[in-house]
Design brief:
Elements: E1 14-20, H1 32-46, E2 51-56, E3 63-69, E4 80-83, H2 84-87, E5 99-104, H3 110-115, E6 119-122, H4 186-195, H5 211-218, H6 229-233, H7 235-239, E7 242-244, E8 246-247, E9 252-253, E10 256-257, E11 284-286, H8 287-292, H9 314-318
Antiparallel strand pairs: 1-3, 1-5, 2-3, 2-6, 4-5, 7-11, 8-9, 9-10
Length: 331
Amino acid sequence: MVKRPKSPEVVEEARYFTVCQPYPLNANWVFEEDQIECARWVAECIGPNYVWGMHEKPSARGMVLLEISKEFTDHARLLGEHRWSEMLKAPKDEEKPRVSQVFHSFYAKGRDAQKDGWKHIPVKASWFGRDWKPGERGIRHPYPATHWCNVPTEDKTNKPLCRPLPVQEKPPPPAVPPPAPVVGSSKWVDKQNKASPTRSAWAKGPQPLDIGRANQASRPAPKSTSQSPLTALSPQLSKGEGISAVSPRSGNVNGVALAASSPSTGQPSPNPVSPRQKTARAKLIPLKDFVSKGGNQVPNKPWGPDKQPTPTSATESSFSAPSPGPRNASD
């Protein structure tokens, strides 16, 4: 049997676009009136000479394919979202929120669309006769510009029909940052926890073990041979032989000036003696001399106010000096 020859390649002179929710509202493609209304709507946008035909499919509700001549190159006028409230002169209440979205179709040839069940509807020249002129019907003239829109959600069980809008022809609007979460909400709490995560010692990972330090820590500590500050100052203090002589008025220890604060500013006097600097040793007085001179004796005076003499006359009682108060035991 002779094999059937291959069909010749058909030169496609049209480009196909997918329309979601085309005009008019609830169009029934069986009726010619709805076909004419849709063809005239597209002609208002791009002109009647570029509209060649349409394809409809009963199972594809709200979808229609437009067959547009390749001579039409200003695709930005047709692609995008057509808002009925802008393109209609007197839209009805049910037509105001409606939009029609036009995208490039995945079908490159009309034959491929017909194999998938799309029925071709040719556009007749009589639809744009003498009784039709741009802007005389319910659509505005000049036609308003379209808007950017995202690809609609399609049936995953069928072939995709809509391509995303090209950025060169329909750039998307700038991205709007999401609003900040309400303080105290679950999203706000999650954001705070992610912003400042708690770090523990285990987050750094295992640290290398220093064997030398570990051995030193395990050895017993040697006995302390350090001396107290007084013993280090003079060995005579440890034996109880003497103490340093301190002058309370000058603030000197055997001629060595001590750090004192200024009475006016409260700041330490300049050039104070640093505890780490080497200074001259204070001269020590033997304990025996200190005890023999009565340095450790306190006069046995009773505590309390001194007894005042009894005034002999009224003049002495009225001009007597006030009581100086209790005396210190060292006075």
